[in-house]
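Why predict the complex rather than its parts? Because the way molecules touch one another can change local conformation, and only a joint prediction can capture that. The input here totals 472 residues.
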Amino acid sequence: MADEFEITDEMRAQFGVDSAPWTYEVTTTSVRMYARGIGSDDPVHYDVDFAKSQGFRSIVAPLGYLGTPVFLPGKNDPTFGFPRREGGPRLNIPFKGLLDGGTETEYFDVICAGDVLEESSHLADLKLRDGPRGKMLFVTNESVYKDKATGKVVAKQKLTSIHM
Amino acid sequence: MAQVYFEDIKVGDEIPQLKKNCSTQQLVLWAAGSGDFYQIHYDKDFAQNTGLKGLIVHGALKNAFLGQLLHDWIGEKGQLRRFGCSYRGMDEPNQDILCRGVVTKAYADGGNHFVELDVWTEKPDGKKTSPGTAVVTLPSRS
Amino acid sequence: MTQATNSVITDEMRAAIGVEGPQAVLEVEKTNCRMFARSVGHKDPVFFDEAAAKARGYRGIVAPPGFLGTPIFNPASGSGGAPGEMGGRGYSVPYKRVLNGGTDYEYFPEADVICAGDTITARTKISGFEESEGSLGPMLITRRETTYTNQHGKVVAKMYGTLIQY
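Output of the joint prediction:
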């Protein structure tokens, strides 16, 4: 069935359709955990007093970390944590393999612990390619993150996943 | 579960059981949740190099399972006062861990209604791996 | 029972009983409460959903049983280990093997319930030593007690740990 997969007009019709928003929270513990996870030693990610002395509101989220989606059992994917929500793309993907194809992040502000963001995403692209083991489907989603308090866009992210 | 009241229980009653079965993924989630990144819970080579047969479930996670067993039983109006266990036997991922509890005492004191329990986790063959105790207070209909 | 081996409890160890160790600061936030609850497999929304927790009269998301906050991790100061650093622990014991004998948690809901937004300070002391002779041979049992105090000065929890050395 995977070999017969084709991108349909129905799937393409979902391009650009924004999902319902979801709350992403940036906390001191989550910033530190992400920084620790990448092996960073920079005190701006750990020490609140130091970060403030550098002019930031609080410790700074390492690049790539845009907060943790509010997790509600049954509402979030149990493995990847992303929210399953209204208006999200509905694709029936028959491929068993899944790889991260890459992420691009664009910043419009510094994200700090204490920030509460609202994220909305849409399906941006689908590409079917032939690979050494059969068809490969590249799915690109674009997300926009706004500061919940001010409504300002603080970041945009483009994520590609490879199904094969 | 419907809210349980002090008058509904008596010494010797068993509370509703909670069955767990940890995938290796759950052990990684627990590492993130507890901050304990000891490799014997997710790196099989590492675990075997320390003399273990394979990955084992962290004792503190089983303790937390007993916390869930009690929390779910006492309901919104009950309060968890004390719980804990000893880490006697090892449990592995992908195997049933049954969390159980039995009421050992029930009494009123100072306006509160206390219930004491023996709680434990056990393996499919019935062997107790984490024996412990708990104290809760329940609402009263009186 | 005749004690075949001599006691390993020294005066130095006895002097350590009751001595509070250094303070550790723990943060209880929405993200770590949810992560702990998710990893255990809790389903009660009180551990995940702020609106649900407040509807039940709590200040915020409730810390699940067994979760007392995340220590502040800072690679510069080498901090971020779990509280348990014992006061007065300068002694050594002739037993090479260690077992975690278990942990008990005690809560004081009349004082307060631990919720997201709380900052907890924790201090640990040795509460006592015992010796026994069992199937593993002579054993030293060390009992430790950690007291958790919230930002309002209320003792919200205690953790009792048992260490077995043999």
